[in-house]
Write a structure and sequence with these properties.
- Chains A, B: GO terms for molecular function: oxidoreductase activity.
- Chains A, B: This is Enoyl reductase (ER) domain-containing protein.
- Chains A, B: InterPro entries: ADH-like_C, ADH_N_2, ER, GroES-like_sf, MDR_fam, NAD(P)-bd_dom_sf.
- Two copies of one chain form a homodimer.
- The model of chain A has no long low-confidence stretch (mean pLDDT 95).
- Chain A has two domains: 165 residues, Alpha-Beta Complex (Quinone Oxidoreductase, Chain A, domain 1); 150 residues, Rossmann fold.
- With 347 residues, chain A is of the alpha/beta class.
- Chain A contains ten helices and 16 strands.
- Chain A is globular and about 65 Å long.
- In chain A, helix 2 crosses helix 9 and helix 5 crosses helix 6.
- In chain A, strand 8, helix 3 and strand 9 form a beta-alpha-beta unit.
- Strand 14 of chain A pairs antiparallel with strand 14 of chain B.
Chain lengths: 347, 347
């Protein structure tokens, strides 16, 4: 059986902040049968993960650094891969059967063909949670937050934690993990509404709107008069500079994302390395792909508070494949609150 | 018995590169007897350690960060403390006896009174090595190099190591430890003579004169076509930026010193944090004072190669207390080759 598959491509490489006009909706005739003898699975996409790092994959890769093994360069005119959840429609792989729910590397479209299935797909046990949770909190956003906080930052109870982009997919979970663990947590975000959410719903001790602050170094001094033990950095640039100057001795910075640089590669963090040396600060970059070994620990630490409502889920869901470009572009304007998803179809 | 003690002070706080005119020679009547009942030791200074970080202690401390517990602010007109080796002349402390050789916190002068002796002095067993070695290679320079390389960088055999200020007191040892351990080592220094020394005498695989390079990023790419595993950073600023861009995945940076910033606090390292995240780089500042627990390991790793001549000692010795300001000022012009010392007196 054949259908028409709608999918999104970039028209050209993107430099700077993305615009909706950088994207294009395409249609193609799409076979819903797996080709006999081929190790491929046909998936009907349900939810797609929309993440800032994907912008780096859309850039001209001549600098050679921005595409990774598990998330290669995005080529103009070609399908855009992303993490997502869908239902198997047809399978040429004996591990996957029709109608099974799977998560893995799908594409910005209504349907995906997953070729060379090994490692690219896994079955989803919903455990009674909404399907969308398996893209965000129980997917890579959750694992990134968990591993970044516990494995990279190595927190101790009572430590003072600062989280930037704290209402985002990862930051909102880092702050909650830190609170559940017994830390003092301050977050920053980009609107009064987000700040309220952090304090009222997610239980952050304090939160501030960075757009209202003119001297971030002084702001952090105000919220952390005795200094910061842990900074979970999703943004880079001035916020990282200010955090470094406010770190305590033996402070740790988990460098998870650099959204400031993604849209402007000149917006670097101009670090006062004297602080780094004199306060024995550690700055550690990490990728979630290297943290799969803690996946089980992550699940056991997450499922219980999720069931009991101690861990709150922030989802920001757009509907329909056509909404994908605007969903993505909005990330860089701070439109999203929590995990940005596109629901491509009802299950 | 009383003598005249010559000693050096700063006339005023120093901002920027130090000049000899910032210093002043003073004389004072100095008693060679320990005051009865006081826990103090009178020491005749022999060798004084001259180190770049002391400049930070000479600055106006209003920023509050640059003086440390073990090395407080240097006050205009007052004695300048430093690490050194000397002979006990008189002692009010039962642990120390006349004529014993001691190392510890002495001052830029001919004599020191060490008050509240606990932790400030220790007896020196020369183990047959020259006295000066106990200020440098067997003192904090050696421990800094050893702990910074082995404890902070956690090297593996065969890894590619880059060392800046490689002919300096710490860098020259880091490179040699790395070679003895089985790494590939490239160093940079500031003159052709130093570069020759690194390659011919110290056994570095490669070395270059950074003053002859116009694009440090390209330079490092040339010496490390497959990337850097470990960067031992003594300088900060552009060199750190270039190293970060040339690191391999899981690369480690030991941030030991920031000589570029010491004389110009605006000369920061403008880091491309995308590299730090995407290559899972760790940047770790450290202070030798936190590494005393590896002192025994350091000695056992150092004494044997030192005796057998596998570890070379670079010392740059000025003579007479009057030479201390020029010895210190010269550090920031790169005058010294290896550990800078002032020999105040013959033993």
């Amino acid at each position: 059986m054949e259908v028409t598959n709608k999918y999104i491509v970039i028209k050209h490489h993107i430099d700077g902040a993305p615009q909706e006009s950088d994207f294009e909706l395409k249609t193609e005739a799409f076979s819903l049968s797996a080709e006999p003898g081929k190790n491929e699975v046909i998936v009907k996409n349900l939810y797609l993960s929309i993440d800032p790092y994907q912008l780096n994959r859309m850039k001209n890769q001549s600098s050679g650094q921005l595409a990774m093994d598990f998330a290669g360069a995005i080529i103009p005119g070609k399908p855009i891969t992303t993490f997502g959840v869908g239902r198997v429609i047809a399978s040429g792989n004996s591990e996957f059967n029709k109608d099974e729910l799977v998560s893995g590397i799908l594409s910005w479209g209504e349907y995906s063909i997953v070729k060379e299935v090994g490692g690219m797909l896994r079955k989803v046990d919903t455990m009674g949670f909404p399907i969308s949770y398996h893209v965000g909190i129980l997917g890579f956003s959750g694992l990134t937050a968990y591993a970044g906080f516990f494995e990279v930052c190595k927190p101790k109870k009572g430590e003072k934690v600062f989280v930037s982009a704290a209402s985002g997919s990862v930051g909102s979970l880092v702050g909650q993990y830190a609170k559940l663990f017994g830390c003092y947590v301050v977050g920053c975000a980009g609107s009064p509404k987000k700040v309220d959410l952090l304090k009222q719903k997610l239980g952050f001790d304090e939160a501030f709107n960075y757009k209202e602050e003119t001297d971030l170094k002084a702001t952090l001094k105000r919220y952390f008069p005795d200094g910061i033990d842990i900074y979970f950095d999703n943004v880079g640039a001035e916020m990282l500079e200010a955090a470094i100057e406010n770190m305590k001795p033996f402070g740790r910075v988990a460098a998870c994302g650099v959204i400031a640089e993604y849209t402007d590669k000149g917006r670097r963090a101009s670090l006062d390395m004297v602080h780094v040396v004199y306060k024995s600060i550690t700055i550690q970059g990490f990728l979630v792909g290297d943290q799969m070994n803690v996946y089980k620990n992550f699940l056991s630490a997450t499922i219980e508070p999720l069931r009991t409502g101690k861990l709150h889920v922030l989802e920001d869901i757009s509907r329909g494949v056509e909404s994908t470009p605007s969903a993505f572009v909005g990330l860089f304007r701070g439109d999203n609150v929590g995990k940005k998803l596109v629901q491509v179809a009802e299950d």
